[in-house]
Structure formats: C-alpha cells, structure tokens
Amino acid sequence: MRIAVIGDGGWGTTLAIILSKKGYKVSLWGAFPEYVRFLKEKRENVKFLPSIPIPKEILITSRLEEALSGSKVVVLAVPSQFMRSVVSKLEGFDFSDSIIVSVTKGIENKTLKRMSEVIEELLGEVKLAVLSGPSIAIEVARGIPTTVVAASQGKDISLKIQTIFSTDRFRVYTNEDVIGVELGGALKNIIAIAAGILDGLGFGTNTKAALLTRGLVEITRLGVNMGADMRTFEGLSGMGDMVTTCISPHGRNRWLGEEIGKGKKLKDIISKTEMVVEGVSTTESAYELSKKNKVDMPITREIYAVLFRNKDPLLAVNDLMKRKIKSEID
C-alpha cells in the first residue's frame, strides 16, 4: 500500500517513519522545495524532529502529484492555519478510492470549523478519519509506548486506520465521535498555554491540578453543546492529550505559556520559533465559539485576554480565583 503524508513537520515526519517501518511505501510532502532538498540530503528533520533518521525508503518531495500517486491513504499533517490552503491544492485529485486522515489539532479562525469540516467543504464527500491523542512526536519517534484514537463516522474506516497505524509501540483505539475527538485535541492546547503560564508564574501542583480539572470541565461543556459525546473527553483525545500537553517539557503550547508567565510578550515569543503553536489561534476560535454557543468558558476567556488584550497573567489568575463561588457540578 502507498501512503502519502502531507506536511513535513515533526508529527508528519514521525508518522511517515512509523508507516515506512511497517513496510508501507510512504511519501512525505513538504511545502518548501529548498527544505525538501535539505531533507533528501540530510535524511533528518533538524528543525522539527532532530536526531531521528528518516529511512531511505521514504520518498521526500515537494510535488503533490508525486506524493499522491497511487496513495490509498492520505495523511494531512499541516498546521490548522494552513489546512484550507493546502487542501485547496488537492481539489483536482481523485480520492474516491482513498482514505483521508487528519492529524491536525486546531479550529479554523473566522469560519470556526473543525479540520474535518474544512476538508469536507473543499473535497466533498470523502472517506475521512481523524487521528488524535496524547502523542508528543519525539517520544513516538523514539519508540516510547503511546496510545491514540482514530475516529470516523463509519466504523469500517476507523478500523482500517487502526490496523494501518498500530504497532507494538503505537496503539490505536477507535471512536465514532469525530466532533469530540477533534475538539478535545484542539481545545486542550488552550489549557496547555494556561499550564505554562502557571509554571512561569512559579505556582505549584495544587494550581495545575485545579487548572486541568476545571479546564476539562469547560472543554467538555463546549463539546457537548456542539454535539460531542461527553465520554470522549474522559478518554485519550480529551483528558489524555490534555495531561500530556500540560506536563511535557516538549509541549510547544506549555512552553509558550511559560514564557508569557515569565513576562515575555506573545509577538516576541512567536518571532523566535519556527514551530507553529496551535493553541494561540485555537484560543481565538474557542473564544468566539463560546460566545456563539453561549457556553461559559472562564479559563479560555482569560487566556484570550492575556494573549490578545495584553492582560497581566497574574491578574487573570486572580480574576479566576475571585469569581462567584458555586457548586462544582454546575
């Protein structure tokens, strides 16, 4: 079987390596020809996945025609901000005999659409699955045991993806709740930014435990309002992914939050990294979704104020703590 991975970031490269080692014929597509040439020569993604060799069997290309030729599975591993522009380049291709797999965790700004909705808007009715969960790329690439979830509206599709991706170190579960899996993977990045802010401010375990617990509550609240299954947020793409992102030293969103907690400005932090920090744009989308759906999301609201309205992080914490007291289960 031929598999195309669209997106040569850390996660796309990691998945390409996993699939290649299983014996599939894998192509890895990158948007920038100059960096693609570098990857071909170096066989190491020094920007996004350093110290991990890329097998010679993987075809690395900047030509979509070459990457997609004969592929029965197409993995979309591009940042959410670029999903629409990349998928629009795929509109002329025939995917009637292929499965599209989105591994991107984000919500499009302005349209407030999940990634699967963007894909379906542009490509029409395709066989579509979402792969998400607690999966730091460098850990997966090093063979550290990891579990994720494949979701699709048709169980046969998620079962196929489960079989294709599963290894003895990368265990894939299935789920039919696409909405919940996508929202959990996207919204947890907001909580990870908040967790980093707490680290930067020097707070302790009590504070972070409270954040994770109440963060999960508001993520679930929005998700259920939008049609997701509450149980999904207790699983790998909800609580599992959130815990990983909030505690891992490799997490970009937690790192960005920590820098903000230390007093640095968002624009200065972003300018010093080539990696896309998904939680920033997701915060903006989630803030608008909470207003649109009339869902109370106090943590998201405060992170939005810190990121986009220059609110002092310590004041944001104080305002959360001084909210009107209430029952935990309301």
Task: Please describe what this structure looks like.
It is a single chain. This protein is of the alpha/beta class and 330 residues long. It has 15 helices and 10 strands. Strands 5-2-1-6-7-8-9-10 form an 8-stranded mixed beta sheet, sandwiched between helices. A two-stranded antiparallel ribbon has the order 3-4. α1 links the parallel β1 (2-6) and β2 (25-29). The termini are far apart.
Architecture blueprint of SSEs:
Layout: E1 2-6, H1 10-21, E2 25-29, H2 33-42, E3 44-45, E4 49-53, E5 59-61, H3 64-68, E6 71-76, H4 80-88, E7 99-102, H5 115-123, E8 127-132, H6 137-141, E9 146-151, H7 155-165, E10 170-175, H8 178-201, H9 205-225, H10 236-247, H11 252-261, H12 266-271, H13 278-292, H14 298-308, H15 313-321
Parallel strand pairs: 1-2, 1-6, 2-5, 6-7, 7-8, 9-10
Antiparallel strand pairs: 3-4, 8-9
In short:
With 330 residues, the protein is an alpha/beta fold.
What do the pLDDT scores average to? 97
Main β-sheet, in a few words? 8 strands, mixed
Distance between the termini: 50 Å
Please provide the ordered H/E string of secondary-structure elements.
EHEHEEEHEHEHEHEHEHHHHHHHH
Structural class: alpha/beta
The rough form would be described as: globular
Number of helices: 15
In which order are the strands of the major sheet placed? 5-2-1-6-7-8-9-10
Radius of gyration, CA atoms, in whole angstroms:
19 Å
**Into which percent range does the helicity of residues fall?**
40-55%
Strand fraction equals 5-15%
Could you give the count of β-strands?
10
User: Ranges with pLDDT <50 over ≥5 residues?
Assistant: none
